[in-house]
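Support request, please re-run this one:
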Amino acid sequence: MYQKTENKLKLIIQLLEEDQNNWSQFFIKALDAFEKGDYTRCAQIILSGSGGMGSLNDLVLGQTKDAAGNFQWKPDYQETNNKFQELLNNLYAFAHGINRAANKALKQGRA
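Re-run finished. Output below.
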């Protein structure tokens, strides 16, 4: 599970960097925590990007402008967004799982 999660973090960073999106820095921080074995911090970082206006949930990749400054879509933008959503959903699932395990451990420690 952990190797797959690390790969997903690297893939989402690559996807965001290719789109020249600043959210890549957000996932670089999550990857750094992950590589240090701080899975709880990694989960916190990932989950902190959801909810509210301008969050990861609102992000649409593949937007650009033509030479005249008019909006246009990049080629394969739909595929890019589908891939982004799949990676994001998987990372949210990882983060929620880590939080559940941490909460369960806390409750057992109090019993």
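Residues 67 and 87 are 32 Å apart (CA to CA). The chain has four helices and two strands.
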